[in-house]
Amino acid sequence: MRKTTLFTLLLLAIAALWQANAEAAKRPNVLFIIADDQSPFDFKTYDPSSLLDAPAIGGMASKGMTLDQAYHMGSMSGAVCSPSRTMVMSGRTLWHLPRRGKKHLKREEGVTKGEDILNNTIPAVFNRAGYDTMRTCKNGNSYNAANELFTVREDATKRGGTPETGSEWHGDRVINYLNGRERANDDDPFFIYFGFSHPHDVRDGTPDLLKKYGAVNHRDKKSLPPANPKAPKLPLNWLPKHPFHHGHPGLRDEVSVGGVWENRDERTIRNEIGRQLACAENIDHQVARVLKKLKDMGELENTYVFYTADHGMAIGRHGLQGKQNLYEHTWRVPFFCHGTRDQGRYPSPWQRLPFGRSGHLM
Ligand SMILES: [Ca+2]
Ligand SMILES: [Ca+2]
């Protein structure tokens, strides 16, 4: 009896260990995708009248979860990217970010090095948990001290209309990284920060996608872009001018964006939205490539995929052009999550976040 009991206990212990090892081996990967300057209303999920073809990102939305009320918290600076991306990286609110001055990156590093903020940023936490961490994104306007902690970092600002100068470059970085893991038989879990430089201006689209959305890369400040019936229609909340003083009308985004400048006429705005959608579809193509690669590697079903943007954008809505306002199109962001477990099982978006239920990401 005693032998049987011990043997049973031993079996149970082995089973428990096997289970623990199996669980450890199955730790999920994370693919965090972030666009630069994208209103949620680019996507049919948020605006069914949008012309944007984005089947890869839209597929994530339909099979996973969509947050309807995802906002960034605003900014203390015209460079809204900076606080937004620092919040993403550190998990702290706008009011608790590392201090910034005119030479904010240097000061930020001085203040935060060795303190808990830096040691609890995304790369620090995932490195500590035994994850491989990789990042590609635009340069600047972010939390550089944290960005440096990614074990693989390939940042460059790519806003051109060719494979080498546009979003495909960022897509290639992730594909190359995954190819390298495959060659090395690296089966550590990974966290990939897959950032794009687009659709932030200058919105230079590729020729085929510009044609699809009836737009051109307009460069001549003295003329208007051609009228094209294929260009997206003016949004319902388009205005030729913002109706009252809104605080900071001379900002770079309101007066200096190439292709728009201070113009708010129909031809300019429709062309610029066409450029925006051309750049957004190119991002979708890159996301599709990476999702396919993960599927081919057998990793997709073990990967949480997030898609969001650092903030939204106006492009003619309410007579504004930029990111420095608090209308819905600008302070809301798209937010989609495709996970391996618990999909569609919770009525409330916050309860449905995979971190709470599975509890094994952090
Ligand atoms: Ca941005
Ligand atoms: Ca590794």
Order of helices and strands: HEHEHHHHEHEHEHHHEHEHH
Q: Mean pLDDT, as a whole number?
A: 86
Specify the CATH homologous superfamily: Alkaline Phosphatase, subunit A
Rg over CA atoms: 22 Å
| β-strand amount | 5-15%
CATH class: Alpha Beta
Shape descriptor reads globular
Low-confidence stretches: 1-11, 344-362
Based on secondary structure, the structural category is alpha/beta
Query: Helical stretch count?
Result: 14
Helix content: 25-40%
Annotation, overall tally of beta strands:
7
Please state the second-level CATH architecture: 3-Layer(aba) Sandwich
Folded structure, characterized:
The protein is built from 14 helices and 7 strands. It is globular. One calcium ion binds next to loops.
List the helices and strands and how they pair.
Layout lengths: L1 H24 L3 E8 L18 H9 L1 E2 L14 H10 L13 H9 L3 H4 L2 H7 L3 E5 L7 H4 L4 E2 L13 H17 L6 E10 L7 H6 L39 H4 L10 H31 L6 E7 L18 H4 L3 E4 L10 H4 L1 H5 L4
Parallel strand pairs: 1-5, 1-6, 3-4, 3-5
Antiparallel strand pairs: 2-7, 6-7
Helix pairs in contact: 8-11
The structure holds calcium ion (2 copies).
